[in-house]
Amino acid sequence: MGIVVQKYGGSSVADAESIKRVARRIVETKKAGNQVVVVVSAMGDTTDDLIDLANQVSPLPPARELDMLLTAGERISMAVLAMAIHDLGHEARSFTGSQAGVITDAEHGRAKIIDVTPGRIEEALAAGAIAIVAGFQGVSQTTKDITTLGRGGSDTTAVALAVALKADVCEIYSDVDGFFNADPRIEPRARKVPRISYEETLEMAAQGAKILHLRCVEYARRYDMPIHVRSSFSDKEGTWVTSADKVGTDDSQESTMEAAIITGVAHDRSQAKVTIVGVPDKPGEAAAIFRAVADAQINIDMIVQNVSAAATSLTDISFTLPRGEGQTAMTALSRLQDSVGFAGLLYDDSVGKVSIVGAGMSSSPGISARFFEALSDAGVNIEMISTSEIRVSVVVAETQVEDAVRAAHAAFDLGSDEVEAVVYGGTGR
Amino acid sequence: MGIVVQKYGGSSVADAESIKRVARRIVETKKAGNQVVVVVSAMGDTTDDLIDLANQVSPLPPARELDMLLTAGERISMAVLAMAIHDLGHEARSFTGSQAGVITDAEHGRAKIIDVTPGRIEEALAAGAIAIVAGFQGVSQTTKDITTLGRGGSDTTAVALAVALKADVCEIYSDVDGFFNADPRIEPRARKVPRISYEETLEMAAQGAKILHLRCVEYARRYDMPIHVRSSFSDKEGTWVTSADKVGTDDSQESTMEAAIITGVAHDRSQAKVTIVGVPDKPGEAAAIFRAVADAQINIDMIVQNVSAAATSLTDISFTLPRGEGQTAMTALSRLQDSVGFAGLLYDDSVGKVSIVGAGMSSSPGISARFFEALSDAGVNIEMISTSEIRVSVVVAETQVEDAVRAAHAAFDLGSDEVEAVVYGGTGR
């Protein structure tokens, strides 16, 4: 009898009716002959409501207490889900992160999992019960305080438990059918991808596709735990995220996807572009600039330095960063203007990033050229370019993001004849 | 430096503003030179809301999961209270019942405290922090599952922690100024009692006065922990509940209260009266009747058996019980009618119980007589009588309860000249 770990996000357990629906699905999995462990997020808007409450008493609540507060959210959803399963005639026992053996460091609000010791979960499974575990939380190894794992924490809890329990699969449920090779709201012919490698998933996620959090995919890749991303609203197969050697090994008709050069098109409208104009082209200048940015705790993404004009020995350096950090970065850089001696700073938050990702491209020459030609034919102007082994990204004007996504999708034959009626969305925390 | 344990009920922490007010009071106690441990209930209606949610998925939720769910309530209030204290510039750390070392048996929903091992609380105090503890909850010694303590659980948590920490006092805060010698809504001249013994408090509570839960008073009496019942809305002294030898030992003008023969008048409108008519007056009949009632899990209160009429050798037996259990009791007794051979059953839920309580009465003859005369003068008809060492209770028609309370209050000179503008109410769970 295999072990299946299932994770349900906040939108899947938003109210009593949703919880009952999820309970029926869990019971079906159990009746199909599996031992079932369920990781659950807080119901719907609970987390936001709790944060609002905290802010009513304190503008900057202490992190330890904020973690204590927020973990009440999963405590509610997991207990109610256990009740709903019980009401269907099956035994279910809920466990906090601490009880489930999710041991973390002491970094409140963004704790890292150090160890998973799921003895109580194994006992519950051995007794024939379904185990329900609070996602997103653990207990500090050193202080014994309750911690939360931060963004992607529930997905990561599910994968970590699946690894510790040697589960067959970690199923991540949300309100979408799986991973699509482009945003169906932009490109109606976007297709569901049946299988994708950990590496491609990481690139897609890093390039703005709301598929799975990087952190959970990294954990799964490290321990080679297959993830099945699927919808809690249907029984359809979703997308399997596995090691690259397993992608395309199934016999389904869709396995022809394996031959596709690129897996999907990702886009990201959350970034802004900073350009430092007229930087003296001599050693140490770029280092001084990026040291200042790093000291201001700014997460930069793409960096492009143009070849300097020979006549002036001046160059322009551009980088992208999250829009929310633009003001901080501009302030930090302004302070450097005299010492570094650059001519000026430009800030543009009307940009978007469009990327093509696929393991196939490293062995297929001309992919970048085909991408850029497609953009050019669609009248899209490229502002910055960055590439990796399995990805090509461009920065374009925000108004041209949708045109760029559709052009790339068409250029690489990613379309299906059938229009998928789904929402391209993300998993919860 | 002394340790003060304070308990705040749900109405004292109903919203963000109330929590901030409570935080200020806690900080004042700390600044006055005390080490402070605070036990807190769930905010306002949180517990009821959580029970509603549970009932939406399951008509009879499993007790283990209901406990897991309900404990989310205190988790929220304690974390937010710690944040509010933090915002005032003082360190506060919140602890679940389990973290605070509240060890219980495994009876979910009505667990009993077996042990209190407050090592983490002592560490927090030693570090100069204020410790905030979730009331109403603990962890099972055997199953390690989260438990709730049931009615009066938060008050009991506070007293148990005060005992384990060797605190100077356990302060129980609610929205009333203390304990009054009659319900001020019925008798406007009711006076606040400055001191009362554990035993009198137990009698008053058992007779329907909503002062403190029996369980918490019993715990305090066993370990001689003084309780100070007071309002979170004022700085006034409330009512001290102490051992009998300490009642009346203070020097305040109010200590003359010690000389009062009776401490207060309690009343209870929650009961009904069952009368079994025409019971054969021979050995074993009463035993059969009360065995049937006990087997039906009915909590009976007063029992009165009249002398049998010599001519018939038949007697009537009456008892009182909570109204909610009336139907069950009548059904259980009906089944006995043939075997016991009584003539009939009467049920009356339009009754009320009025009691006078006071340690002084055992050494003062004529108390009962004065009480009954006062009732008679007020036109109140007595239906049943029951007495203990420090209490006399009567059952009267429900419509005459208020007249009876006022008559008793006047007969024993309990009135003050000043009318107290307070609500006679209860503490939370």
UniProtKB/TrEMBL annotation, chains A, B:
Residues the entry annotates as binding substrate: 47, 74
Gene3D superfamilies for the chain: Acetylglutamate kinase-like, VC0802-like
Record PROSITE patterns: ACT, ASPARTOKINASE
EC assignment: 2.7.2.4
Enzyme type, top EC level: transferase
Keyword vocabulary terms for this entry: Amino-acid biosynthesis, ATP-binding, Diaminopimelate biosynthesis, Kinase, Lysine biosynthesis, Nucleotide-binding, Transferase
GO cellular component: cytosol
Pfam families (UniProt xref): AA_kinase (PF00696), ACT_9 (PF22468)
Catalyzed chemical reaction(s): L-aspartate + ATP = 4-phospho-L-aspartate + ADP
Gene Ontology biological-process entries: diaminopimelate biosynthetic process; homoserine biosynthetic process; lysine biosynthetic process via diaminopimelate; threonine biosynthetic process
GO molecular function: aspartate kinase activity; ATP binding
Amino acids binding ATP: 7-10, 185
Sequence ranges assigned to domain ACT in this UniProt record: 274-350, 356-429
Pathway(s) of this molecule: Amino-acid biosynthesis; L-threonine biosynthesis; L-threonine from L-aspartate: step 1/5; Amino-acid biosynthesis; L-methionine biosynthesis via de novo pathway; L-homoserine from L-aspartate: step 1/3; Amino-acid biosynthesis; L-lysine biosynthesis via DAP pathway; (S)-tetrahydrodipicolinate from L-aspartate: step 1/4
Family annotation (PANTHER family): ASPARTATE KINASE, ASPARTOKINASE
Family: Belongs to the aspartokinase family.
Described function: Catalyzes the phosphorylation of the beta-carboxyl group of aspartic acid with ATP to yield 4-phospho-L-aspartate, which is involved in the branched biosynthetic pathway leading to the biosynthesis of amino acids lysine, threonine, isoleucine and methionine.
UniProt protein name: Aspartokinase
Originating species: Nocardioides marmoriginsengisoli
Organism lineage string: Bacteria, Bacillati, Actinomycetota, Actinomycetes, Propionibacteriales
